[in-house]
Specification:
By secondary structure, this protein is mainly α. Helix content is about 70%, strand content about 5%. It has 29 helices and three strands. It has helices at about 1-5, 10-20, 30-50, 60-75, 80-85, 90-110, 120-150, 165-185, 190-210, 215-235, 240-265, 265-275, 275-295, 305-315, 335-370, 375-390, 400-420, 425, 430-470, 475-490, 490-505, 510-520, 525-540, 540-555, 560-575, 575-590, 635-650, 660-675, 685-700; strands at about 595-605, 615-620, 625-630. The protein has a three-stranded mixed β-sheet with strand order 1-3-2, with helices on one face. Helix 3 runs parallel beside helix 6. The longest helix has about 40 residues, at about 430-470. The radius of gyration is 31 Å and the shape is globular.
Length: about 700
Amino acid sequence: MKSIFNNNLLYLGILFFLINAYVSFIFYHANSYKLVTLLIANFCLLFFIFISKKQIFSLKTLAKTLGILFLPTLGVLPGLLIYRGTYNTYLPIELATNLLVILWAYYIYYSPIDSNVEGHGDKEEKGVTILLIAMGITTIYTFICQYFHIPEISSRLSSTFGNKNYFACFLSIMIPLYFTLSLNGFLTKKKIAYFYLLVFLAAISAMFTTACRTGIVASTIAVMVACFIFFLKNPIKKIEKTQKKILLVSILLIAIVFIMIGHKNNFLFAKRFTELFRDTATRTVAFNTAIKSIKEAPLLGYGIGSSYDLYFKHYDKEITLKGVPEETSYNHVHNELVEYMQEGGVVGLIIFISFWVYIFYLLHINFHKKNSKNQILSLALAAAFFSYHLHSLFDVAPRMVVVKLPLYTLIGITLLISRDKMKENRECEESNLIINKGISLFITTFITICSVVLILPWMIPLYTLCDYMITQEKDILILKKVENTLYKYPNVYALYELGVVQLKLGRFKEATKSFEASLNIIPKYKDALYLEALSYYYQQDFVKAKEFALKYQQQDLYEQKNLNFLIKLAVTSNDFDLFFEVIKIFCNMYLVNEKININVKTDDLTPTSNALKAMIYVYKTNDSVTIIWDKKFLFNFLNFIRDEFEIKKVQLSWDKSTKEAQKRLRESLEKQIKELFPDTGLLQREKDILYGIVRHIIYLYVWK
């Protein structure tokens, strides 16, 4: 027991658990919170190294280890220098994340070394086992949180990770890792195999509750590949009878978990996988956008943290017509290789691939080394990395610290089990040991301080805003202090959320300032453009509102909420030209798949007893549809609403008890709208399309 507590990797395992055991939104995002906790953990490890008298590295080993770990980060730095940070809004958080996980992996590599004790290889093996147990306990704990701490088990939950996809990516690493370790444990009759199997079952169960298709597929393929290699190296004939029974029971347990979880969430999985091909459009949006930016800087890319900004610059303006109505969550590439090429170009991608080739090469050497205690551990690590890379082809999660932490933990273990005996350490003179330790401490301290410098300006505004948002009494003086802090430390996330808070409180001028500040950071930030237009609208500044709404519309020509806003703005400000322009856009949306020309005109239509019939006239030729709107349409339209609906609207009170009455009123309205299109020469399909346009516009004002 004493040897366990003397093993330094135990404390890294405890820190790993603590980082992942809880989530708080005091920094607005779970990922930001975990980044801060990782920073604190690295400070603890730095202090530990400072007071330690045993561990030491030679300068050669230090340079080699950090050089390897820094390779992926170095690959995305040249573009940053070339473009001088033009597109690198997320540089501080991205760079700090990389620095901290690199240090974390370095500490894993460093910790078990004891230059004064022979046979430290056994200590390394025990240390790795302890760390794997700690990671396994973390996985079981998050599974328990998934099932019991959060009430809605059937929904796509996220445990302590704050996001279902982050949690799924974490699990996709853990599943093949512990499955492969359990196979080896049963083969060697180690009791730890039962624990590894338990971790695997917890991880696969939690994976199903996330309903993450990429995670399920990636981890399943990785498990199958690991099984194939394992049984290729250990044929069934060589496995003893008792071990075969244990393996059979394990496989049955896995099958039972699949069946039980699948049955319980059948409706969710069926729906998710049924929608798979439809949802691929949401990924191709991000891929195509990234490819556009890559073509402009193919060699060295734009630098670390540029993916987010570049998305808004190269975003497809007509994407709404291609089946992706709400794509704001796809502002990252959702493919690590494409994103890396975007930020590092061809050169960066080569460096990135070289890093991973080296990692897999080390595992390959270990796996094929005779009498190696780390053969199956190497296979388990390779399976985990393989699953990670499969998952990263379709998900944004790999760039987040909640996923990079377990990934770099396994990278640290890979380097640890692959190194030589480090004999040169024991042969160093005492003076050299002191110098080497001093240099090592200087480098690790410098990297840690750089991380603090990068993180603080990013986290201060997030913490300040969230601290205000969770306060029960919304004191306006406190809000003003929050505003001053955020303007001093501009953060695009915090500024946007501050603007939303200000809009809700009616502080429209202040909201305008917040959105303008966020637009100074990312000029084509779509959501900020929309809310900027909205804030000007509430201030009755219709000219500015129109300016920003049209800027948004240039970003996305057919975004529904913005078109609705433009119609409302046109009606409010009596802007006939704007109104008819938006109507034309609606027509194009409905007829996008038809080879037909849309003409929208204005004229004086003949008054009729039905106000609706006086609004619009439609006629068709062989290759075009002409829609004529009355010049006095707005006047007639508003009168129609007032005369036909206002009294009934008051009488109905619009509460839930009047659904039937509302339904009858809606049916009456639809009947009148359909009368717009008698004898126009249009086919029924075309009538339905135009009827949909008019109905949408009227509902916008009457029913909302």
